[in-house]
Amino acid sequence: MAAAQTDSWGGMRRIAEEQPELVKWVYDEVRVNGPLTAAEIEHDAPRETGNWGWNWSSVKRALEFLFWAGEVTASSRNGSFARVYDLPERVLPADVLATPTPEPAKAHRSLVAVAARSLGVAAEFELRDYFRLPVAAARTAIAELVEAGELLPVEVRGWRQQAYLHPEAKRPRRVHAQTLISPFDPLIWERARTERLFDFTYRIEIYVPAPQRVYGYYVLPFLQGDRFTARVDLKADRKAGVLRVPAAWLEPGADPATTAPALASELRRLAGWLGLSAVAPPEGGDLRLPAGVP
After folding, report:
1. pLDDT digits (tens, 9 = 90+) for 29-42
2. How far, CA to CA in Å, does 289 sit from each of 183, 266, 268?
């Protein structure tokens, strides 16, 4: 946050450099009228000032710069999942606000430690990517944690990369998992890691032209136990009250006799969470749900 002026991504940094008056105006809007969404602020924004036009994108970039800098925070999300912005002192507990800001080196060590604890075992890039840390700072933090015995260098069979193990990581005797995974879940966010751990190749195909898609538009992997056994393309048909399945695919080596009913159960659970009353049979793919399950 302290380095927002230099380390934030280009659009945010440019808005702060080129339109500081807009950034201040947006901050004052949140201070006086918050909590607010970007759309609510844009509605009141002057259409232009000087040589610069103020539009939704400009307001959103200003908000994101303030968010990056810690001057505003997200108090909630509205029905469309848009951030609702407010001042930190109106959102965060007083003891959190009063916590002293750590020195950058200590902060980097703490963030790498959180990443290591969350990932269990990971390569350097994954420890760094978890919180998008700078390369040099992350490497220094990893070395210092290793020296302190808070991170253990290990070898993982089949990995070319040096791996690091969190000392508190435990290998369970059995993994009891049965769930659909979001494309943005940390389990599959770093695609190379997912391939090394699960021999599972995943690419989101939202931006791929329809004729070139392999599995579908918005495909969710299905985690069953300690492996991915299927993937499904899903669409919520709210008008009909049905969770539609444009395609369902069985992963190589998975047993359809156990995967199909487990996936059907999870689809029913997802449909209920979405407020839908039924699950339609798959329209494509090579995996069929048990007759009568939906």
Report:
1. 999 998 999 888 88
2. 22, 11, 12
